[in-house]
Structure formats: structure tokens, C-alpha cells
Design goal:
By secondary structure, the chain is α/β, with parallel strands linked by helices. The chain is built from six helices and six strands; from the N terminus they run βαβαβααβββαα. The protein has two domains: about 5-125, Rossmann fold (3-Layer(aba) Sandwich), CATH 3.40.50.2300; about 135-180. Helices cover about 55% and strands about 20% of the residues. It has a six-stranded mixed sheet, with helices on both faces. The protein starts with 5 loop residues before the first strand and ends with a helix.
Length: about 180
Amino acid sequence: MAEKRKIVILEDDRTTCRLIAGVLENAGYEVFQANEGRMAIELVFRERPSLFISDVLVPDMNGSEVVKSLNKSSFGADLAVLFLTSLLDKGDADIAEKRLKVEGKEYPALAKPLKPELLVEVVVRLAGEPVVPDPVKEAVEESIEAQEEEANKAIDEAEADSSEVGEEAASEGNAAESAKEE
């Protein structure tokens, strides 16, 4: 079974964080929430997400400090990042292509308050389509695995029986040869 694409969200406002997580979970993503920068860094390295979504203004570390910290590792440097901020002009709420720079690298940013459909559109572009489990496909795969296990067990039993028969035949053959020699 394919794993869902993972997303880590850093948002200090717990209500906003739950709302964003709900939108993305309903879209088919597995979401991990952090309310502090250090917690987000730990989640990123533990969960290895496809995307890191970060508020810009977070009390313990701002979003750009977290991204700078992540960029020190090869995984973090290659991680897709989306910033969320109330610092953008409210008229920019419909524009997905606003960019914020961190250490010379540009990242997409969305203005808060977020529009759920725009959020999902940008997340799909950055993280890829969500992996939605197909129950029929899963059932077929499980059935095939069970049949393969049964077949392998039958083969093992047949080989065991075959080797026992071969040993008996060899014993009988040795006994017959011994009788001829006498």
C-alpha cells in the first residue's frame, strides 16, 4: 500500500493550524502539526514530509529561521516550502505566486486569511497529488499476497516430502546394493 504524502505545518495559532490541517487531510494528505519552530524541525526530520508549510511569524523562531536551520541538511535543503503570512497585502490573497526570500532562495507564499481551494492547489503543485488508497486495489493486493504465501508453503512442503522420499529411496538403494554384494 502506498503511503500518503506527508506535510508538516508550523503555525503558532492552534485554531488556524487545525483548520489548515483539516483542509489538507480532507484533500488526502497526512499532516503533522507544530506550534513552535523547534518542534517543526524535529517533525520534519522524523517524518520526512513532501512539503513544509510555515507561518512567517512564530514566537520561538520565525519561519525563515526554521527554513535556514532545515537548509543545513541535504534533506532540508531539498524540501519544498510554502510560507503563510499576514504580512502580505490582503489584496494578494488570490495570488499564489508571491515569493519570500530566505538566504537568496525564493519560496512561494500565501496571504492569510487563506482560501482553502487556493491552498490545496498550491500544495498539489509543491508536494504532488495526494496518494489516496484504493480499497479494491488493496484487497486484490492482499489476496495475491495470501495466494503467494499459500503457494510458497505448498512448494516448501512438496520439496520437504520430495527430499524425504529421495532419502528413503537412497536408503533402499544402498540396502539393495549391500544385499547384492553379500
